[in-house]
Design brief:
671 residues, Ferric Hydroxamate Uptake Protein, Chain A, domain 1, Rossmann fold, six-stranded mixed β-sheet, 27% helix, disulfide bond, glycoprotein, LCCL_sf, neurogenesis
């Protein structure tokens, strides 16, 4: 009997072993058949900011072409979440402009971010931000699952659809606390005004008690719904935030999320919620306000004047990429309150304006205009060169000194003067005005664009919008165009045999010395050159070089030709090959340099040049015929023709030619 039992036990054990082995092989086969799902890397655009993506860690693919200054980056190595993700990747060196995959990991906000230039991108500085991120190569780490679809916090998300809630996101828990799932649902299509009239479900008592002490102040332009749930949910999901969307509470962008939850309300006042504006690029001007601080204005009206300045500063959107603003106060004497580079945003500027105290004294506006012309618009004070210079003079009644001469000098220096006259002189008071019609004598042009007359100080606030619109209309800021930055200048150079190699180099040096006096760029003064003998040759055109150094190098490279002297044919050639390509808004100046009488007629070509609006300056050296120079030159010939006895004395005539050009320019009508 015992033997039988043992045999049965052995059979059972044998069967068990067979089943076990079979199961192992079966599991191996099953394992072989199960494949890990392929990870799809989500793609984003160059302008996507890290703060718009809720996921704490993710892999994304950036497109090509993100190395562009319009995609702002804040910080170095550790970037503020307000930065472009792809821009930060290029700045850090992880990517180049061809794009590719990157790994992004969110980290805590920093107390400051330092800007730097790296890999073709200039990152900006930022004093503080609520969240940061770092970028590394897009190699997924082992045993880490990355999202194949990103969760966005904005309707601008490429993956967000109308009426759909975004994916729930579990904030990392802090030791000793309970993790709180957060579900965001967008009120789609609602603007700020629409959202305020949206009928929202009433929160449950538990939701109210949970959120009332944590909710941040509403900010931004889009409304969102939020529910914070700190109780544990059961399997049925009865307490789940998704189970009852009607228990969601109102939340708007601007709330600051950190690892421990929301920033307390009292901390929001010290936290930087938006990066400082770079300014309105459509209004890039350098602006000086000349404010009346005389005793006669009184304290109350002086405060109104300061409020007006603050309103203008707010409306302008001050910043390094837009308008910059400084203030000069005048009484007996002018004094700068702050210059263009002192305050780089509207907020700081308004604070500084509030601190200005009244100086008292007379109302010497003319002296203030002279001060601004000589001292204010300098590079040391923040003048940017490429931005139009604008001076707005505020006068209570009328000035106690004369403004005409000071204003003329300001206009010739390229300053656009605006006058705001408040409570101007009545008929009975005009006898006391030092300089009748002072406003028209001061402003850039007398067409009404630069003058604003305000009947009462209490109406001054109505002038904010009209003034801002005018000073930002850079196409109409006529006084920005000066004698040195608004011309197409064509040099027509005699290369005949009588000149000789040595003297020809002296002529080229004269051409270079004249060119140095002008502000040269593709939008300012442009330079071209033609050399002639019997024939003509275009050395370089107006579009060939747009910097002063390039122009001077091009002049040095001009080679001496040698031959006869056909000045008439050279004028015709310059009109066709050079000035025909001049810009419509440019003054056309021809500066012809010759050392002898022409073999052909110059009268008809000179008349054609005058008819086409080309202002011609004729400069004769040594054997040049003075009567011929006068025929070539624009009327009056005495102002447009010069005779030099020797080539070596040419340099003495550089200031005379420049003065003649500027005198002719400034004599134009101001209407």
């Amino acid at each position: 009997m015992g033997i039988v039992v043992l045999t049965m036990k052995a059979s059972v054990i044998e069967m068990f072993l067979v089943l076990l082995v079979t199961g192992i092989h079966s599991n191996k086969d099953t394992t072989k058949k199960i494949k890990r799902p392929k990870f799809n890397v989500p793609q984003i655009n160059c302008d996507v900011k890290a703060g718009k993506i809720i996921n704490p860690e993710f892999v994304v693919k950036c497109p090509a072409g993100c190395q562009d200054p319009k995609y702002h980056v804040y910080g170095t190595d550790i970037y503020a979440s307000y930065s472009s993700v792809c821009g930060a990747a290029i700045h850090s060196g992880v990517l180049d402009n061809s794009g590719g995959k990157i790994l992004v990991r969110k980290v805590a906000g920093q107390s400051g971010y330092k800007g730097s230039y790296s890999n073709g991108i200039q990152s900006l500085s930022l004093p503080r931000w609520r969240e940061s991120f770092i970028v590394s190569e897009g190699k997924p780490q082992k045993d880490v699952t990355y999202p194949s679809a990103l969760t966005y916090s904005s309707s601008k998300s490429p993956t967000a659809k109308t009426g759909e809630a975004t994916k729930a996101y579990q904030k990392p828990s802090v030791p000793g606390t309970t993790a709180q799932p957060v579900t965001l649902m967008q009120v789609t299509g609602a603007t700020a005004s629409e959202a305020s009239h949206t009928s929202l479900p009433k929160p449950s008592p538990s939701a109210v008690s949970t959120t009332s002490s944590l909710r941040s102040q509403p900010m931004g332009h889009r409304s969102w719904e939020l529910d914070l749930w700190s109780t544990s949910s059961d399997a049925s999901g009865q307490n789940s935030p998704r189970a009852n969307a009607g228990e969601m509470d109102l939340w708007k962008p601007g709330s600051v999320l950190l690892d421990a939850g929301f920033v307390p309300k009292e901390e929001l006042s010290t936290q930087s919620l938006e990066p400082v504006s770079q300014g309105d690029p459509n209004c890039k001007i350098d602006l000086s306000f000349l404010i009346d601080g005389s005793s006669g204005i009184g304290k109350r009206r002086f405060r109104i004047q300061k409020q007006f300045l603050a309103d203008v500063a707010q409306t302008l959107d001050i910043g390094p990429a837009g308008p910059l603003m400084g203030v000069v106060q005048y009484g007996d004497n002018p004094a700068a309150q702050f210059n263009l580079r002192t305050h780089m945003n509207s907020r700081d500027l308004k604070t500084a304006i509030e601190k200005i105290t009244q100086r008292g004294g007379l109302s010497n506006a003319g002296r203030a205009i002279s001060y601004v012309t000589k001292n204010f618009f300098s590079k040391a004070n923040g003048n940017r060169g490429g931005a139009p210079n604008v001076a707005v003079v505020i006068v209570d009644g009328w000035p106690t000194d004369k403004v005409e001469e000071a204003s003329r000098f300001a206009r010739e220096s390229g300053i656009n003067i605006f006058f705001i006259t408040i409570e101007g002189a009545t008929e009975n008071e005009k006898q006391y005005v030092t300089e009748p019609n002072f406003s028209n004598k001061a402003v850039c042009r007398t067409n009404g664009f630069y003058s604003l007359n305000v009947q009462s100080w209490f109406s001054l606030h109505k002038t904010v919008q009209p003034l801002v619109k005018r000073v930002c209309d850079t196409d109409r800021l006529a006084c920005s165009k000066t004698c040195l930055n608004s011309a197409d200048i064509g040099f027509v150079i005699d290369g005949s045999s009588s000149v000789g190699t040595g003297n020809f180099r002296t002529v080229l040096q004269f051409v270079a010395n004249l060119s140095k006096e002008f502000e040269i760029s593709d939008t300012d003064t442009r330079i071209g050159a033609v050399q002639y003998t019997y024939e003509q040759r275009l050395e370089f055109g107006f579009d060939d070089y747009n910097t002063k150094s390039d122009i001077l190098n091009a002049i040095k490279r001009v080679g001496y030709w040698s031959g006869g002297t056909s000045t008439g044919a050279a004028i015709n050639y310059a009109l066709e090959q050079l000035f025909k390509k001049s810009k419509p808004n440019k003054r056309k100046l021809m500066i012809l340099i010759t050392d002898g009488r022409s073999y052909d007629d110059v009268r008809i070509p000179a008349m054609v040049a005058h008819h086409k609006g080309v202002i011609t300056y004729a400069i004769g050296v040594a054997w040049a015929a003075q009567d011929e120079l006068e025929v070539i030159a624009t009327h009056p010939a005495n102002d447009h023709s010069f005779f030099v006895d020797e080539f070596d004395h040419l340099y003495k005539f550089v200031p005379k030619v420049i003065q003649s050009i500027c005198t002719e320019f400034n004599s134009q009508p101001r209407n």
